[in-house]
Specification:
- The structure is a single chain.
- With 563 residues, the protein is an alpha/beta fold.
- It folds into three domains: 159 residues, no CATH class; 254 residues, 3-Layer(aba) Sandwich (Rossmann fold); 64 residues, no CATH class.
- It is built from 21 helices and 15 strands.
- A four-stranded parallel β-sheet has the order 4-3-9-10, with helices on both faces.
- β1 and β2 form a beta hairpin.
- The longest helix is centred in the C-terminal third of the chain and has 26 residues.
- Bound molecules: zinc ion.
- Zinc ion (ZN) binds next to loops.
- GO terms for molecular function: ATP binding; cysteine-tRNA ligase activity; metal ion binding.
- InterPro entries: Cys-tRNA-ligase (IPR015803), Cys-tRNA-synt_Ia_DALR (IPR015273), Cys-tRNA/MSH_ligase (IPR024909), Rossmann-like_a/b/a_fold (IPR014729), tRNA-synt_1_cat_dom (IPR032678), tRNAsynth_Ia_anticodon-bd (IPR009080).
- Keywords: Aminoacyl-tRNA synthetase, ATP-binding, Chloroplast, Ligase, Metal-binding, Mitochondrion, Nucleotide-binding, Plastid, Protein biosynthesis, Transit peptide, Zinc.
- Its cofactor is Zn(2+).
- One of its GO terms (cellular component) is mitochondrion.
Length: 563
């Protein structure tokens, strides 16, 4: 158990809110000292409102988080079992291939929940397993002539890399099945001793009829679970729905010794055993994709309760499916996308923005149109914040005052109110993303319009808007290390989609400038339109012509037809 214990330490020794404050410069830090207790309510414009754009957000009301609980089929207020602490287990991947966009959705969803719980001040122990012993891994390893454990280790690493690309924070612990055989064997023995399982010829089965609550999570009745009976009846099972806790090893398969002979665990038992090892039998949140409700999570509940009658998980949370061009994603339909395939052409944070653009429980439809839109949107967000940062960098810290105009304070409080209200209402991220529009527009007005440039305390307003946006984007996992770097990466992806190099675009710009000088407007127009068709927009200014990524014209037309 000593290897397990090391994971119980808090992930960070300083509160997350302080980490976020440190992201900014000392200039921002000194600016946002709230005068009094922070409130997230709109205030009258006649008095100087208080502002909470620092790390000290979070009135008691904002801590009330509501989550849709699959087991009760209701939205419930979140109450942790231990004040201030949360235990969360999310089912991880079976590591036999590259992860697909369905996986991206699951782990982005729970990363946002993890980040938001921490934003609310909870100390979260987040456990996400790796299935590294499984039929699919064995079959793939046979195909490739590779050792199953080394194959799964390789794909675990690929998955971890995908999570880094997608800005998913590392969980507190990532246990693997192959490292937890003693805990798994112990739990199976416990279940047999308690009378809920039986062994036959080296296999061990859970007896569903012994567990009257079986079906409570999924709403399925035991008699509904006989669908597969005609296909494959295992006469050794007492009931067709009985499922394997331990499988006897077949020739050439990896195996572990057990009281029932050499073999390996069934899929479901690993999550019961590993969640209990890291979080105990009673913890707060268990999550995963909707496809896991039955049989995986139903079986987990049965196993955990059979092993320990104090087993209790408060909230079961499941995210919806991903469809591709409105069809179910599947390898056989040829519409199956790995995360790597998607991020080859689109920036991983554009993929993340796209995923957060739909409520996590609803189905989400993946298409190039959606990814182009998300890429365009995220470019606008980062360009605005980059311009804001550039403007602020030209001002010395001593010129800044410890005051912010009341209109700015109201606008920021309203935005933050929408953020907390929406996130606390079962993580309504699409509402938060839509609410970004107002502060972004205000920043652009302050930076670029005549009226905005004349506004009193303009720099202070820009600093305040920049800070709130950074904090909200951090909680959504959308905050880049550097705006200029990510803008360049977004430009590079757009060039790749356009099948052009930057030099070729610059050459086209020169050709167009020359054509305009020679009053060959038709020719200059064709150059502009050709580039726009592949997602390269030209922007003319007194200083010359520059380019930025844009939604290709054909896709813009599709967007119009969709709306
Ligand atoms: Zn699981």
């Amino acid at each position: 158990m000593s290897t397990l214990l090391k994971f119980h330490r808090p992930l960070f020794s300083i509160p997350y809110s302080i980490r976020m404050v440190q992201f900014g410069t000392h200039r921002f830090h000194s600016l946002f000292k709230p005068k009094r207790r922070i409130r997230c309510v709109s205030t009258s414009s006649h008095s100087q409102p208080s502002i909470g754009v620092g790390g000290e957000w979070g009135s008691p009301e904002s801590r009330e988080l509501w989550l849709q609980n699959t087991i009760s089929r209701k939205k419930e207020v979140f109450r942790p079992k231990t004040e201030g602490k949360v235990g969360m287990y999310v089912c991880g991947v079976t590591a036999y291939d590259l992860s697909h966009i369905g996986h991206a959705r699951v782990y982005v969803t729970f990363d946002v929940l993890y980040r938001y719980l921490r934003h609310l001040g909870y100390q979260v122990t987040y456990v996400r397993n790796f299935t590294d012993v499984d039929d699919k891994i064995i079959a793939r390893a046979k195909e490739l002539g590779e050792d199953p454990i080394s194959l799964s280790r390789r794909y675990c690493e690929e998955f971890s890399q995908d999570m880094v690309y997608l800005h998913c924070l590392p969980p507190s612990a990532e246990p693997r099945v192959s490292d937890h055989m003693p805990q798994i064997l112990h739990m199976i023995k416990q279940i047999i001793e308690n009378g809920y399982a039986y062994s036959v010829d080296g296999d061990v089965y859970f007896s569903v009829e012994k567990f009257p609550d079986y079906g409570r999570l999924s709403g399925r009745k035991l008699e509904d679970n006989r669908a597969g009976e005609r296909v494959a009846v295992d006469s050794r099972k007492k009931h067709p729905a009985d499922f394997a806790l331990w499988k006897t090893a077949k020739e050439g398969e990896p195996f572990w010794d057990s009281p029932w002979g050499p073999g390996r665990p069934g899929w479901h038992i690993e999550c019961s055993a590993m969640s209990a090892a890291y979080l105990g039998y009673s913890f707060d949140i268990h999550g995963g994709g909707m496809d896991l409700v039955f049989p995986h999570h139903e079986n987990e509940i049965a196993q955990s309760c059979a092993a320990c009658n104090h087993s209790n998980i408060s909230y079961w949370i499941h995210n919806g499916f991903v469809t591709v061009d409105s069809e179910k994603m599947s390898k056989s339909l040829g519409n199956f996308f790995t995360i790597r395939q998607v991020i080859d052409l689109y920036h991983p944070l554009a993929l993340r923005l796209f995923l957060l653009g739909t409520h996590y429980q609803s189905p989400i439809n993946y298409s190039d149109v959606q990814l182009e839109s998300a890429s365009d949107r995220i470019f606008y967000i980062y360009q605005t914040l980059h311009d804001c940062e550039s403007a602020l960098s030209q001002h010395d810290v001593v010129t800044l005052k410890d005051t912010i105009p009341p209109d700015t304070v109201n606008s920021i409080n309203n935005f933050y109110n929408v953020f907390v209200t929406s996130m606390s209402d079962d993580l309504h991220t699409p509402v938060v993303l839509a609410a970004l529009s107002d502060p972004l527009k205000t920043i652009n007005d302050l930076l670029h319009t005549r009226k905005g440039k004349k506004q009193e305390l303009r720099i202070e307003s820009l600093a305040a808007f920049g800070k709130i946006l950074r904090n909200v984007l951090s909680t959504l996992g959308l905050m880049p290390e550097s705006y200029s770097e990510i803008l360049q990466q977004l430009r590079d992806k757009a060039l790749k989609r356009a099948k052009l190099t930057e030099d070729q675009v610059l050459q086209k710009i020169d050709e167009r400038t020359a054509a305009r000088k020679n009053m060959e407007y038709e020719r200059s127009d064709i150059i502009r339109k050709d580039l726009a068709a592949v997602g390269i927009a030209l922007m003319d200014s007194p200083d010359g012509t520059t380019w930025r990524p844009a939604v290709p014209l054909a896709i813009q037309e599709q967007q119009v037809s969709i709306t």
